[in-house]
Structures are given as C-alpha cells and as structure tokens.
Amino acid sequence: MDGTKEFIARNGEFTVNIALIHQQQIVLGVVYTPALQETYWAVKGQGAYQIVDGESVKLQAPRFTMNDSGLGVVCSRSHLTLETEAFVNQLDTPNLVSRGSSLKFLLVAKGEAHIYPRLAPTMEWDTGAAQIIVEEAGGKVISELTKMPLLYNKENLLNPYFIAYGAVAPNQ
Fold first, then answer.
1. CATH 3.10.560.10, applies to 4-169
2. Which among 38, 83, 114, 151 is most buried, taking Cβ atoms within 10 Å?
3. Chain-centre distance of CA 166, in angstroms?
4. Which pLDDT band, with edges at 50, 70 and 90, does 100 fall under?
5. Do residues 136 and 101 make contact, with C-beta atoms less than 8 angstroms apart?
6. In the structure, what pLDDT confidence band is assigned to residue 96 with cuts at 50, 70 and 90?
7. CA 89 to chain CA centroid, nearest Å
8. For 36-45, how does the pLDDT look when each residue is reduced to its tens digit (9 = 90+)?
9. Distance CA 36, CA 13 (A)
C-alpha cells in the first residue's frame, strides 16, 4: 500500500501497488485505487492502460517542453520540500496539483499533469508499479542525481530523489 498518511487521514488518496522486477528493471506494474475503484496496469513493451467499464484504455502521457507555460505539476500532499518548491519555481507559471500516494504518477501517465518532482524520500515499493505505467505511457522517471531510470532490488531499498515526466521534448 502506498499513501499510509492518506489512508489514516481517510481522504481516499492511497493505492495498492504490485510490481514485477527482473534484473533491477520493472517489467510489470498494477496500481489499484480502492477509493476510486480504478485499476491501471502496464507491461514492458506493451503500453500502459486504465481499465474503464471493463475495457483496457491505452494511456498517453502529455507532450511538452520544459519552456512551456502553465505546465501541470503534481506534488505530494504530505511531503512538499524546499527542493521541490525550488524546482517548481524554475517553471513558467506552473499549475500545481496536490495528490497523495502513487496517484501523482497516474496523473502524469493519463495526461492530467506533465511533471511530478519527488525531491524527498520514497521506497522502492512506493514507485515501482507506477513507474512502468508512466514509462509505457510515453514518459520517464529519472533519478535527479544520475539522470537515469530508477533501479530496483538494490541492497538499500530507499529511492534517490527523482522526477517523473510526461513525454517531454528537448527545449526548442
């Protein structure tokens, strides 16, 4: 379960996450939102989907550049940091949305947000299932330090700070 604080607060912003990892890479992910009764899933190389009325509907992350005005930025309801605020302040008139748990990733994968900066601690079980959903929807989730995708089944299960992007294009 991701979003323990949201679960305790009874605001419905928690998820159940299941991920399959092979050679430190996520190859399958399922995220279920009990309060909304929504299911999202992705398999490496096969796309990302949301189940709507019993049908799998393909997800597509939004296309944008970092210079665009009004980018949708989803931030943590429980973990907003000074580093996150500094990142957001570099953007041109960002539109901030606050959500709990891995719902933030899902907003990026569905095209309802462009960026999710997570410049605070998370654990592998918080991110794995949702990371592949973002990636298979055309986005990426990269370490703020290495600029590479997050790796899993490490000796230390703490994730580095990261940023999830929709289908970001190079600045023009």
1. no
2. 114
3. 9
4. confident
5. no
6. very high
7. 20
8. 899 999 999 9
9. 9
How buried is residue 112: exposed, middle or buried, by Cβ count under 10 Å (0-12/13-18/19+)?
middle
State the burial class of residue 26 (Cβ atoms within 10 Å of its Cβ: 0-12, 13-18, 19+). buried
Q: Write the CB contacts of 38 (distance below 8 Å, at least 6 apart in sequence).
A: 32, 50, 51
Write down the pTM of the prediction: 0.92
Q: How many residues are given for the chain?
A: 172
Q: What is the pLDDT of residue 171?
A: 67
For residue 172, is pLDDT > 60? no
Would you give the end-to-end CA distance of the chain in angstroms?
40
SS3 state at 73: strand
- CB hemisphere CA count around 34 (13 angstroms): 13
- For the chain, domain boundaries: 4-169
